[in-house]
Amino acid sequence: MGKGGESIPDEEWERFLREAEAGDKAAPKEPSARARMVTQRLQEEGGRPEPWRSHQPPRRRVGKGWYVVGLLALAALLVVALDPGRVTGWFGGGDGSADGAGAPLAAESRRPDQAPPTGPAGQGPTMEEPFRGSPAARWADGTAGISLPEARATGWMDKKQVAQALERTRDFLAASSLNSGVLRGDRPTKAISLINPHQQDVQDYLSDAFRAPGEENDPLLLFSRFEDTKIRLVGDVIKTRGRLTYREGERGAVEVTTDVTYVYPFTRAAKGSDEVARTVVRREIVVSWDDPDKIIIEPGTFSLVSYKVDTANGGCDTFTGYLTPKFDSELAESQGDGPEVDPYDRSKSMESRMRDADGAGCGTATRS
Questions:
Q1: What is the chain's alpha carbon radius of gyration, rounded to the nearest angstrom?
Q2: Which residues, including other chains, have CB under 8 Å from residue 93's CB and lie 6 or more apart?
């Protein structure tokens, strides 16, 4: 286990065991009791081990080769214990690892500390490879890219109820941002059914958003939609990356925060169109699974606490209720006057992203 209760994925651990049994010299060694004691002391003291790749052991004498190996193994096992996320890099799954190009990324278990690297120049999307040249090429498909934390008893809910709340929250994300009918403009009935019907201000917003969308009642705050008479999805895969976190909220409620980036590849609806553009949408939605003994709420529904959205190439200041991406031939004529933004950079919180964009006009995405 690492900081924040993060663990090495099961498949990586099984691979480690197989390589260790086979005598793979490159496999990281499991920490000994002595190493675990050292690790615990470093954690208590707030110290961090030096990354194993930059470890510089003392000059060794001939005949003492085991000394260098021992130091490297110690540095490696300390990193495994304190930061298991680095182990993912050893297996080609870390964000930005040069030797992991093309390999799927491990699930996001915490906020990354930097933006993903830029891919090779000149590799744009195609109808056959709509995510080519973008970090999304290594992301998971659909709900597989939205990771859930381990459930524990919180507030008024026991462990099983928290696990169910997390799963149903992810169901809402699937029904609002991944459902094929909703994407083509259908009313998101399933997603709406998960929202507390007694939350009148939200119900008013939902009614207005689909009847007369506008800046204050934009359905894109919660839902992804496009006009299929103008554009269409390329293939049936939507790439995602993000995670859910939770805590105890007001009156013992379980408050779940979702922070997910969705990547949609589009082409024009006209027959024979083969130019591909990508729209990148990042949403942070906070919901509250309230105690029915304290809040008027229907079973199996949540209350909306807040929602934020940041969209790249989806239309700016065009409140039609639909995503309206532009293609390369159109982008040169419609550059924004706001700051440049990397839509794949998840190292900044949504609060920080919104603060940077406040009053800045339409920004310019550095990549799509």
A1: 24
A2: 12, 100, 103, 104, 105, 106
Q: What is the pLDDT of residues 161-196, one digit of tens each?
A: 999 999 999 999 999 999 999 999 999 999 999 999
112: in domain: no
DSSP code per residue over 60-81: PPTT-HHHHHHHHHHHHHHHHH
Look up residue 128 and give its two tokens. 């056959």
> 83 and 72 in contact (C-beta within 8 Å)?
no
For residues 236-251, average pLDDT: 97
121 in a structural domain: no
Domain that holds residue 60: 3-91
Which among 75, 91, 107 is the end of a domain?
Answer: 91
- On the 0-12 / 13-18 / 19+ scale of CB atoms within 10 A, 223 is buried
What's the pTM value of the predicted model, to 2 decimals?
Answer: 0.73
Residues 179 and 311 in one domain: yes
Alpha carbon separation from 285 to 129, 162, 302, 325, 334 (Å, rounded): 30, 17, 12, 23, 29
Condensed to tens digits (0 to 9), the pLDDT of residues 285-342 reads 999 999 999 999 999 999 999 999 999 999 888 899 999 999 987 766 555 567 788 9
Which DSSP symbol is given to 225? Answer: -
